[in-house]
Specification:
This protein is mostly beta strands. Helix content is about 10%, strand content about 45%. The protein has helices at about 60-65, 100-105, 135-145, 150, 210-215, and strands at about 5-10, 10-20, 35-40, 40, 45, 50, 80-85, 95, 115-120, 125-130, 150-155, 160-165, 170-175, 175-185, 190-195, 200, 200-205, 225-230, 235-240, 245-260, 265-275, 280, 285-290, 295-310. The strands form six sheets. Strands 1, 6, 18, 19, 20, 21, 22, 23 and 24 form a nine-stranded antiparallel β-sheet that branches. A six-stranded antiparallel β-sheet has the order 2-3-7-14-9-12, with no helix packed on it. The longest helix has 9 residues, at about 135-145. Bound molecules: zinc ion.
């Protein structure tokens, strides 16, 4: 089956969202859209396939019925979830458990490792990654006393930055940032702090006990080694390669070839336009290249964020 799988994004309205996802060519239902679930088979936002042999099918159904397209991977659920996020205002401060904790305390669910590629941000934008407590006692005290500015580690953020968020790392996207998130397909999130905001007149639930049992103390920054790989017709930068995913950024000017994979490759066009396998694509196009497709010719002037997983 030599066919690209184009996906229809699922848009989510959020109290902190804005209207910048329209820059990706999406028609927004309101001016507070926070998330585009760009490549997702999650029940809370299962993308429909657009065109081709599987037109109108959910990605989850394709995963369930055509595992040969994914190299015969055996996981029950499609393993990754790609979102494009427009944070007009601050997101709540949260933390995710690891696989072991989630399996035990969340009905066998998986934990969540995620990563962020900053597509754009305001000049003085910041982001929360990690905390400043030295011991568990100190973390408990700062959280319980609500000393958030002492507790959280807030750092400046710039266009093109990349962050890996391991389980146990306190994190939050702050207002003024648009990013692409690649994550394990899991929805298990513990909310640590929500700035005392009201949603429909009530505060959203916090999960302090669970948060405190999964937060890694002290915080250790993830040492990233962004590697530029030599390719003809493009700059290919490996942003991360971890046990859950590999993420690459491709800056194409002219013609190049995306190599085949033994599983599948997620592709999001985040800037510019061109063609993939002869099909016109532009900023906001999201697709999946099945392993059966083999290598894919990419041409034009565009920037792609791609992700894949190893067969285990
Ligand atoms: Zn998160």
């Amino acid at each position: 089956m030599k066919e690209l799988i184009f996906l229809e994004p699922v848009l989510k309205e959020c109290i902190w969202g804005g209207d910048r996802l329209s820059e990706f060519g999406y028609r927004l239902p309101s001016d507070s859209v926070g998330e585009c679930w760009a490549i997702s088979a999650h029940p809370n936002g299962d993308c429909l396939i657009k065109g081709g042999l599987y037109d109108g099918m959910h990605l989850s159904t394709l995963w369930d019925t055509h595992r040969e397209l994914f190299g015969g991977l055996t996981a029950e659920h499609f393993p990754l979830l790609i979102k494009i996020i427009d944070a007009k205002r601050d997101l709540s401060i949260q933390v995710h458990p690891d696989d072991a904790y989630a399996a035990l305390h969340e009905n066998g669910a998986s934990g969540k490792t995620e990563c962020w590629y900053i597509l754009d941000c305001d000049e003085n934008a910041t982001i929360v990654i990690g905390h400043r407590a030295g011991t568990k006692e100190e973390a408990e005290r700062l959280v319980k006393e609500g000393k958030w500015s002492d507790f959280i580690r807030e750092i400046p953020v710039h266009k093109g930055d990349f962050f890996q968020i391991e389980p146990g790392v306190v994190h939050a996207i702050k207002g003024g940032t648009v990013l692409l998130e690649t994550q394990q397909n899991s929805d298990i999130t513990y909310r640590v702090y929500d700035y005392d905001r009201l949603q429909n007149g009530v505060r959203r639930e916090l999960h302090l006990e669970k948060s405190l049992s999964v937060i890694g103390i002290p915080f250790r920054e993830c040492a990233l080694e962004r590697k530029v790989l030599p390719v003809k017709g493009a700059v290919c930068e490996e942003l991360i390669c971890c046990r859950y995913y590999s993420v690459e950024r491709w800056e194409i000017s002219g013609e190049t070839v995306l190599p085949g994979t033994s599983t599948f490759r997620n592709v999001s066009v985040v800037n510019g336009e061109g063609k993939l396998g002869g099909f016109p694509v532009a900023k906001g196009t999201n697709l999946l290249i099945p392993c059966t497709y083999g290598e894919c010719v990419a041409e034009g002037n565009m920037e792609l964020i791609c992700s894949t997983i190893e067969k285990v």
